[in-house]
Amino acid sequence: MIDATRGILYPARLPEFHRLPAPAEAAELVAWFWIPEWNLDPGRSSRQEVVSYPALNLVVQAEEGASLAGATTRASHRDLVGRGWVVGALLRPAAVAALIEDPAALVDAERAVDEPVLRTAVTAAMAAGEGHRERAVEEFAHWLAARVGTVSEPARHANAMADLLMMDSSVRTPAQAAARLAVSERTLQRMAHRHVGLSPAAMIRRRRLQEAAQRVRDDHSVDLATIAAEYGFADHAHLSNEFRTALGFTPSAYRSGVRSSGAPLAP
Questions:
Q1: Contact 140, 91 (CB under 8 A)
Q2: Disulfide-capable partner of 183 in 61, 187, 195, 233 (CB 3.0 to 4.6 Å)?
Q3: Domain segments of the chain: what residues?
Q4: Phi-psi region for residue 232, left (φ > 0), alpha (ψ -120 to 50) or beta?
C-alpha cells in the first residue's frame, strides 16, 4: 500500500500531488511513481519540503528534461512557481544498475540524463487530458522496463534488501536485516552501497526519521518522548538530535510549524 504523504513534511502546502503504483512490467523496478502538478498565480510560490526515501529517483520535467537524483542524507526543498509538473519514479535497486555505475557518487546530488525518448513520451502523455497521469506512468514504465531488461536474481535480492530497510519497521539494525536476508553484514553493506549508495544503517535511520516525523505531524496528542520510544530512539534528546541533523529543526518546532501551516501558498 502506498502512503500518500510519508516523507512530505508539509502536505497542506502541496498544490496537487499523486503517488501511483507501478504497472506490472515495472513492478520490480519502481516502488511507485510520484506526480506533483501546480498552476500558481504570478508572484506566488509553494515551497515543498521533503525528507526523501533512501533511494534514487528518475525524474522527468517538461522544461528541464530527465534527471537522476541520488539518495539524500538531509531534507531538501523546492520552490514551485508558475505552472508545471514533474513525473518521478522512486527506483527499486533492480533498476539502478542500468542507470548508474556508482550510486554513492550521486548521494545528495542530481544530474541530467540524456533520454529524449523518455522525455518526449512522458511530456506527450501529460498533455493528453483526462487520464494523463496514468498514461505518463505507463509510458515511463514501458521505457524503463525496456532499458533495464531481464531482472536477475541478485537484483531481486537487492530489492528484498531495500524493502526491509525502507519499509519494515520491525527491522531496527543492519544485523537484523542481514539475518532476515540470510547474508553476512558485510554482504549487506556491499549490496546497499552498490544499489543505493548509502549504508544499511543510514537507510534504517532515514526510514525511522520519516516514520517519527509523520507521527509528530499527524498525531499531536502523543508526546514526543513516547514517539521517540516507539521508533527506536534512545530518548527524546536522541530524537531531537536526529531531527536537527537531518531536518534542521527540532520535533517540537516541526509540530508547531505544521499547526501553523494551513495556508498552502507563500508570497
A1: no
A2: 187
A3: 11-148
A4: left
- Grid coordinates representing 58 are 528518475
- Per residue in 148-175, pLDDT (tens digit) is 999 999 999 999 999 999 999 999 999 9
Cell of 206: 532515514
Mean pLDDT over all residues of the chain?
92
What stretches of the chain adopt beta strand conformation (E)? 17-20, 30-39, 45-50, 57-61, 65-69, 76-81, 83-91, 110-113
Which residue has 517538461 as its cell numbers? 62
Residue 97 neighbours by CB under 8 Å, 6+ apart: 155, 194, 195
Counting every residue written for the chain, the total comes to 267
What pLDDT, in 10s, does the model give residues 32-48?
Answer: 999 999 988 888 888 88
pTM: 0.91
Could you tell me where the beta strands, DSSP code E, fall in 51-208?
57-61, 65-69, 76-81, 83-91, 110-113
Q: Provide, for the chain, the percentages of residues in helix, strand and coil under a 3-state DSSP scheme, each rounded to the nearest 5.
A: 45, 20, 35
Which amino acid does the sequence have at 22? A
Closest CA to 145 of 18, 23, 1: 23
Q: Kindly state the cell numbers that stand for 70.
A: 541520488
